[in-house]
Structure formats: structure tokens, C-alpha cells
Design goal:
There is one protein chain. The chain is α/β, with parallel strands linked by helices and 285 residues long. The chain folds into two domains: 2-144 and 275-284, Rossmann fold (3-Layer(aba) Sandwich); 146-264, Rossmann fold, CATH 3.40.50.2020. 29% of the residues lie in helices and 25% in strands. The structure holds ribose-5-phosphate.
Length: 285
């Protein structure tokens, strides 16, 4: 097997390559004065191939890099397992109103036109199950990072309670027998959410507040605030995908979290848990 790292997949790809003991080659890219991207894809030796590229911000640039890379591979007569650790546009996997673009589905439909043997995603924020996308002609595997993250963080705390802002995130934690308390969250706008602050037995307890992703931080900040108000001891704010727009990371810490931990699906200063072992295992299957 060989691994090809797209411009936004280099860090994870290197770790996966190290874990599997397989070579990693990198796609080179540069930007023209008008903002367009030029890519150079190295020729990878024959054999199975995994391409790694996240599509976090700037999403459109990352998607174009991905399409260009897949296009070169197609020209070379190659197919690949495509690993997208963070799948941008993942929240729009269906039209919630008539006429609304199902952006995730649109991206998957474009991907399905390339020679992709298998698509591997990590905690995609789909409302449908990834298996539903086989209808788009893609065989999709969804890896769950939540148990790995919770296990790592728990080892640094005293019998922590796992609190999730909603049922979706709690279900991710429960996938590996982890117990999680789901709060009840209501979203009324991109930056407006509220969480019922029902009384929980968190006083004096270490708490991990886990969500699949943090974007504006509104959800995490409110959950951390409630935990602080209810007397939690040490609070670790954790998520698989640390998108952190508009200084969300600093605002979460200012809201009372003692620590912020996320995975490396999106590289950054808080990405201290790697999903590379999960990806490596999936590539071996
Ligand atoms: C929503 O269902 C997700 O699990 C996250 O809670 C949400 O995407 C976080 O967004 P924000 O950080 O903007 O509140």
C-alpha cells in the first residue's frame, strides 16, 4: 500500500504511514496570483493506494484540490481509497427546505464520478447514516473517534462524567459502551442555541463535555457554563472536529473549560488526539 497526502491531509497521512510502515508521498500545490490552485501529483508505485485530504476551511479550495488530485489519478489509470478525516459541508446531507441545496450529497455525487474504491470518513455530521450513500455509488465507511477521545481524556481525570450537548453526540460516545448524559439543546440560528439547564449530579465531579464538532463554540460554551454553574470540578471540553471559527477556542476556555481537546481531523493547537490509528486499522481491513 502507498499513501498519498493531499495538501490538507499531510499531518494525518504521515502518522498513518508511520503506523502502517508504508511510504507517504505528498501532493504539491501552489496558488496563482488570482487565487487559482495548481497541483502536482507524484506518480505513486503500483499497488493499493489511499488518498488523505480533509475538506475543512477553506472548503472550496480543499474540494478543488481533491477533485484535481482524483482527476490526475484517473488519468494515470489509478483508483484509491479516499480518506476524508473532516468532511466539510457534512451538515447539509439533505434539503431541509424545498429548493435548498443538499451540499454534502452534491459533493458525494461528484466524488462518485471518480475511481474511488472506498470512502473513509471520521464522525461525519450526516443526518442520514453513511450507508445510505451507497446509492450514490460510493462504498462509505464511517469511523467513530468519540470513544478513542473519551478514553484518552478519561485517563487524565477522576471518574469523569461524560456530558453531551445533544443526543447525536451522546450516541457517538455510547458506541463503545461509554456512558454519556445527553443535554437537551435547541438551535434557533447559526449562532443562537439554548440548552435546558436541568440539575445534574456534577457537583465536585470531573466532567468531559463532548460534541462531535465545535464551530462557533456557542453550543460548547453554553454546556461548559452550565457545568461550571452546577459546581463541576475539572471541565474538559472535547470534540472530534475542532473547527473553531471566530476565536471559539479562546472563548470556550474563557467560559470556564479547564482544557480543550480535539482530534487531528483538523490540525491545530488543541488537536492532541490522533485519529491515525483508526484510519490505519480501517485501511488494513
Ligand atoms: C450539532 O448538532 C453539532 O453536534 C454541534 O453541536 C454543532 O455543530 C456545534 O456548532 P457551534 O459550535 O456553532 O455551536
Amino acid at each position: 500500500m502507498h499513501i498519498l497526502a493531499g495538501p490538507s491531509g499531510i499531518e494525518v497521512a504521515r502518522k498513518v504511514g508511520l503506523g502502517l510502515g508504508v511510504p507517504v508521498q505528498e501532493v504539491m500545490a501552489r496558488t496563482f496570483p488570482d487565487g487559482e490552485r495548481l497541483l502536482w501529483v507524484p506518480r505513486v508505485p503500483e499497488g493499493s493506494l489511499a488518498l488523505v485530504q480533509s475538506t475543512a476551511a477553506p472548503q472550496e479550495v480543499r474540494l478543488m484540490e481533491l477533485f484535481f488530485t482524483l482527476d490526475v489519478l484517473r488519468e494515470q489509470g489509478r483508483s484509491a481509497t479516499l480518506v476524508i478525516p473532516y468532511f466539510g459541508y457534512g451538515r447539509q446531507d439533505k434539503a431541509f427546505k424545498t429548493g435548498e441545496a443538499a451540499s454534502a450529497l452534491a459533493v458525494l455525487r461528484i466524488l462518485a464520478t471518480y475511481p474511488i474504491d472506498r470512502l473513509v470518513l471520521v464522525d461525519p455530521h450526516f443526518h442520514r447514516t453513511p450507508g445510505d450513500f451507497s446509492s450514490q455509488g460510493l462504498s462509505c465507511t464511517s469511523l467513530c473517534a468519540a470513544p478513542l477521545m473519551v478514553e484518552r481524556i478519561s485517563s487524565t481525570l477522576k471518574k469523569p462524567l461524560i456530558i453531551c450537548p445533544d443526543q447525536g453526540s451522546a450516541n457517538l460516545v455510547r458506541k463503545a459502551s461509554g456512558d454519556a448524559i445527553a443535554l437537551s439543546k435547541t438551535r434557533t440560528g447559526d449562532r443562537d442555541i439554548s440548552i435546558d439547564d436541568e440539575k445534574l449530579a456534577v457537583e465536585g465531579r470531573d466532567v468531559i463535555v463532548f460534541d462531535d464538532m465545535v464551530s462557533t463554540g456557542g453550543t460548547m460554551i453554553e454546556a461548559v457554563r452550565i457545568m461550571r454553574e452546577q459546581g463541576a470540578q475539572r471541565i474538559v471540553a472535547a470534540c472530534t472536529h475542532g473547527v473553531f471559527v471566530e476565536g471559539a477556542d479562546a472563548r470556550i476556555l474563557a467560559a470556564g473549560a479547564d482544557e480543550l481537546v480535539c482530534s487531528d481531523t483538523i490540525p491545530g493547537p488543541y488537536a492532541t488526539v490522533s485519529v491515525a490509528s483508526l484510519i490505519a486499522q480501517a485501511l488494513q481491513e
